[in-house]
Amino acid sequence: MNDKKKINWEEFSKEAAKGIREGRPITGQGGVFTPLIKQVIEASLEGELDAHLLETRVLEGNRKNGHAQKTLKSSLGSFPVFSPRDRNASFVPETIEKRQTVLPGDLEEKILGLYGLGMSYRDIRSHIMDMYGVALSDGTLNSITDRVIPAIRQWQERPLERLYAILWMDAIHFKVREDGRVITKAVYSVLGANMKGEKEVLGLYLGHNESATFWLQVLSDLQQRGVEDILITCIDNLSGLGDAIENIFPKTEVQLCIIHQIRNSLKYIPWKDQREFMGDLKAVYKASTLELAEHHLDELENKWGSRYAVVVRSWRNNWNRLSQYFKYPEPIRKIIYTTNTVEGYHRMVRKVTKTKGAFTSDMAVMKLVFLATLNFNKRWKNGIRNWPLILNQLTVYFEHRIIETDTLN
């Protein structure tokens, strides 16, 4: 017979915490949450039956009629569930259907999903209490989210493809508590497009403020994981980063982000001249050919060089890497002239992390960014728009390298 005694959540939380300290698994046979899931399911079934009886008792004289036992299989292991019945046999439960013997989703997965959407522990506790009547402590929630740590390490070490068409590289910064202080740390993101046009975050690396030296370590890691060649890499104008890329992948073409270059330029232009200056600058980066762009750059220098020499000098010094995109047709230009692709990914991460003040640890940052990234990967399954056209165009410029890699595969 089903035990209808209400769950003592405080007592359960203490027992669960004790089990975790003793090294018992959270899931599986003998897991600390297995009894909890069983009782939550049974409570939910009882609630469904109560609601059904309110609709059928008066008109049909319906009432409860004991319980039926069945064994339910899940990642938590197999356990018996007592499902309530009604006299008229008209009750059709939704929590666990009549002939269902496999649990499709677990409370633990629900918690990880909510955490990956950026919900705080307090919000998750409230949501789980409202939905399931389950009270969870921060310690228990932390133990559940720590489950992803081995998955993060495995993901960080996974082998990569030999050739990537395009890489976008950038860093996003977070506040992290360390030794009693709040400091800024950078998550280095590498977003790649493979030869099928599929976008994927190749790696996430946590370090201190962005530097070319750390990026060199990131690039070395990509090489060790199997990357042999990259056709085009898009980066911001971080000093030394382009050289670091060419040191590890000497054949890659490095394209500096035009938007970053424009933003840096405007820092040195007074407000009264910005509109006119931008009009002249637009003629440079919007030119249809490299020759026309260089002509407009000469005109820009003749007009503004005496007043804003530092700005013009920056464009001249970086021109070789700023102007790579002019050699390509418009479909390729649109996706390589800026790092907007990886910045778009960072904007999605910011939506998930914006409610966080300072993270409690480096791993707290990585857990949330990793789970958010898994969610974003689902949105990228369709790949880059017009990829067959882009691939055909890339093959014109990189035919030998693409064919060579196809042969190796």
Q: How would you describe the overall organization of this protein?
A:
The chain is α/β, with parallel strands linked by helices. The protein folds into 2 domains: 142 residues, no CATH class; 247 residues, no CATH class. It is built from 16 helices and 7 strands. A 5-stranded mixed β-sheet has the order 5-4-3-6-7, with helices on both faces. Strand 1 and strand 2 form a beta hairpin. Helix 3 packs across helix 15. The N and C termini lie far apart (61 Å).
Using brief descriptors, characterize the structure shown.
alpha/beta; 2 domains; elongated
Map the helices and strands.
Elements: H1 9-21, H2 34-60, E1 64-74, E2 77-86, H3 107-116, H4 121-132, H5 138-145, H6 148-156, E3 163-178, E4 181-193, E5 199-207, H7 212-224, E6 229-235, H8 241-248, E7 253-256, H9 258-266, H10 271-285, H11 290-304, H12 309-322, H13 330-336, H14 340-353, H15 362-379, H16 387-408
Helix pairs in contact: 3-15, 7-8, 9-12, 10-11, 14-15
